[in-house]
Amino acid sequence: xxxxxxxxxxxxxxxxxxxxxxxxxxxxxxxxxxxxxxxxxxxxxxxxxxxxxxxxxxxxxxxxxxxxxxxxxxxxxxxxxxxxxxxxxxxxxxxxxxxxxxxxxxxxxxxxxxxxxxxxxxxxxxxxxxxxxxxxxxxxxxxxxxxxxxxxxxxxxxxxxxxxxxxxxxxxxxxxxxxxxxxxxxxxxxxxxxxxxxxxxxxxxxxxxxxxxxxxxxxxxxxxxxxxxxxxxxxxxxxxxxxxxxxxxxxxxxxxxxxxxxxxxxxxxxxxxxxxxxxxxxxxxxxxxxxxxxxxxxxxxxxxxxxxxxxxxxxxxxxxxxxxxxxxxxxxxxxxxxxxxxxxxxxxxxxxxxxxxxxxxxxxxxxxxxxxxxxxxxxxxxxxxxxxxxxxxxxxxxxxxxxxxxxxxxxxxxxxxxxxxxxxxxxxxxxx
Length: 432
Ligand code: CMC
Description:
The chain is mainly alpha-helical. About 50% of the residues lie in helices and about 5% in strands.
């Protein structure tokens, strides 16, 4: 029998069961707290709340561990690729060759967006933020793929393979289209002869009569970037996807909400914010020392972007992998990016500074990812979109976990009301 937790409130004792995860994470199951005692648990920001039991990704932030379906991210980064890891996130296990071929084929088959959807994309202003376009396009996928997006749990699940492939493939296609259309360029059709990442680079950068051919180092760096972002447990955007899915919304509607949640600078928008910060430091002639002082003082709301994490109180394992990949890629491409020098200096200075040490603030995945993306030729306004392409399999896997749970409940938190107490309506003539 599992341990019991006893809570004493108003001279009464209440007993709650506990739950233990596979990696011995412990939780008190407070689901009956309100019905038993009239109290709710209060945890603004959910820093101490397990919102679900999941089988997809495990993080131990205290020691810097990240595993997809049990496999350490370091092993996946070394041996796997984005498509294989995506399959595993979605379906639970590494694919056989035949399963991989089928999955990869489905993604290629669903890569082209409907001509009507491509046309709708042209209606956005040329200065529209690509994340705004992407979020809209993800929502619009429900309209252009109605046969596989039905808002009906049973038929949504029957169509899961096609819907998942569409979401993953058309996120990349829509992103490349958003990039080209806002620059007044014609969109490129997907090329099924190419790998996922090479096809994306082709859709972004091929010009009439001048196909873009990715060199292996560029192709591998992009694949690694996508793989490292593919899932990350119950973060802000994934929790949003699960929240929307819990109401029965179809896959496309749910991941569109995820993209909106990702946009903010405290979450997926951090990769853009890091490059902006590094550029500003460079232009001011600072080597990063002055900026660190400002970030420590909290003046003008400055933070060392790309540092700190709600869960990691140690190195983000993705940051270690990406930091090294960044060094190797820039060396291979012969790029001398002054922002890399500033980033290195910021990292060294922060890791030796008591402010950052005492708050367990370490580099996160976004600290070096912007420099990698820039070296690949991706402009800064597309960085968060790149994060969304990478995160799509994780969102889809989490949507599936919700959709497959027949006992699942709509997510509906409580609140502690602090507004005006009961008062009477005042007619307009009597209002001061
Ligand atoms: N620079 C300076 N101080 C910081 C930073 C930072 N990047 N992050 C946290 N702090 C300080 C914060 O001011 C607070 O200090 P004090 O205790 O004196 O008030 C303390 O550290 C705790 O901060 P918090 O905001 O309560 O921590 P949180 O867990 O709510 O926030 C975070 C996590 C990621 C939002 C935050 O660290 C941050 O804003 N970092 C910069 C943005 C960033 O890089 N985000 C990407 C996260 S990784 C990608 C993803 O998965 O989304």
